Amino acid sequence: MRETLVLNASFEPLATVSQRRAVVLVLQDKAVVEQARPGLRLHASTVEVPVPQVIRLRRYVRVPFRRRAPWSRRGVLVRDRHRCAYCGRRATTVDHVVPRSRGGGDTWLNTVAACAEDNHRKADRTPEQAGMRLLRRPFEPTPSDALLLAVGAYDGERPPEWLAVPAA
């Protein structure tokens, strides 16, 4: 099921929810649709609702501060846009820059997306030892960036148009 990004009333990304839950929040007037999926609408006998990609809560919800986005293999692939860090082709695996056997861990700064061929070619070596260079350095996304990247609402360079603050 597709996921929908939930923003706080202050436009701060909070979480992702199922499409069904997002529609329920909109119908209960607890949220408004900030960005809909183009060309898709849900029809019922008395109501028609755009299929939400991003919703914003009408009331502010206080949440505990999160310092770091949790690391995950899926998160690394999304962060790197499923592009191999060594050749730029489609990535399907996650590679450790410093191999785990040499003390490298599962961290944002030590993992990159890689195609299976380059991951196999690098094997249990560092990129320098394998004669390979990284096209881009790994980075740690903020919790907000991680949520925006996960639902495809952010390309990592410019904020989406619904998040842009109008000039006063």
What does this entry look like structurally?
The protein has 168 residues and is of the alpha+beta class. It contains five helices and six strands; from the N terminus they run E-E-H-E-E-H-E-E-H-H-H. It has helices at residues 19-27, 73-79, 116-122, 127-130, 143-150; strands at 3-7, 13-18, 31-43, 48-57, 93-96, 111-114. Strands 2-1-4-3 form a four-stranded mixed beta sheet, sandwiched between helices. The chain is elongated, with a radius of gyration of 19 Å. The termini are far apart. The model has no long low-confidence stretch (mean pLDDT 86).
Report the end-to-end length measured between terminal Cα atoms: 39 Å
Q: Which consecutive residue ranges, at least 5 long each, have pLDDT under 50?
A: none
Instruction: Please report the number of helical segments.
Output: 5
- Shape verdict: elongated
What's the number of extended β-strand segments?
6
> What is the overall pLDDT average?
86
Strand content: 25-35%
The helix/strand class is alpha+beta
Q: What spatial order of strands do you see in the largest sheet?
A: 2-1-4-3
Largest sheet: 4 strands, mixed
Order of helices and strands: EEHEEHEEHHH
Helix content: 10-25%
Radius of gyration: 19 Å
Brief characterization of the structure:
The protein is of the alpha+beta class. 21% of the residues lie in helices and 25% in strands.
Spell out the blueprint of helices and strands.
Blueprint: E1 3-7, E2 13-18, H1 19-27, E3 31-43, E4 48-57, H2 73-79, E5 93-96, E6 111-114, H3 116-122, H4 127-130, H5 143-150
Parallel strand pairs: 1-4
Antiparallel strand pairs: 1-2, 3-4, 5-6
